[in-house]
Amino acid sequence: MSAEKKPTRSSEEVQTTVRKRIEDSYGNYLQALQDTQMSAQTRAADAYAGYVSAVNDVQLRGLRESAEVQRQGPTALMDLQRDVQQRMQDAQREYMAALQEAQTELKDRSASAYRAYVEEIQRTWKEIDVGVLDAASIVSIGQSMIAAALAGGNPPEPSAATG
Asked: What does the pLDDT look like over 18-64, one tens digit per residue?
């Protein structure tokens, strides 16, 4: 008689299910990160396009008005220059605010994806029958968690987890 005990079918099914859930959780996490990054890039590109358009509009308007203003004298020309400068600064401020919003959304959505991943790991872990869990499944869970931590950069800040 052999001293080795062959795993039962239910044990193999449990291990397969655990690995599948972990892989699915990790895949969902990576997809959420990718979607978040694409959204942030799109927002940044849109903000840049809006900024370039605003700058062009300011410059064209300034050119159109400069001929008329030159006839009105140096004070009017200085006023126009200040107005153009102010509109350029406003366009830059709006652009920077849009970039900041995109960055904040990226950070918030990444943290949310990370929390969802960790919560799924917790649920999976709670449901594991440790009597049938093999070392390979534990390694799979550990590798998934390491990869998720590396993919997501920094975990969410403690204040984000409570808010």
From this structure: 888 888 999 999 999 999 999 999 999 999 999 999 999 999 988 88
Question: 146: which 2 tokens?
Answer: 């390491």
Q: Model's pTM, two decimal places?
A: 0.71
Q: Which of 43, 31, 38 is nearest to 116 (CA)?
A: 31
Give residue 56's pLDDT.
94
**Rounded Cα distance, 98 and 32, in Å:** 22
Query: Which one-letter amino acid corresponds to residue 35?
Result: D
How far is it, in rounded angstroms, from Cα 113 to Cα 69?
55
Is it the case that residue 1 has pLDDT exceeding 50? no
Amino acid at 36: T
Cα-flanking dihedrals φ and ψ of residue 110, to 5°?
Answer: -65, -45
Which token pair is 133? Answer: 């869990």
DSSP state of 8: P
The phi-psi region of residue 133 (left if phi > 0; otherwise alpha if psi is between -120 and 50; otherwise beta) is: beta
Asked if 58 and 83 touch (Cβ cutoff 8 Å), the reply is no
HSE (CB half, 13 Å, CA atoms) of 86? 6
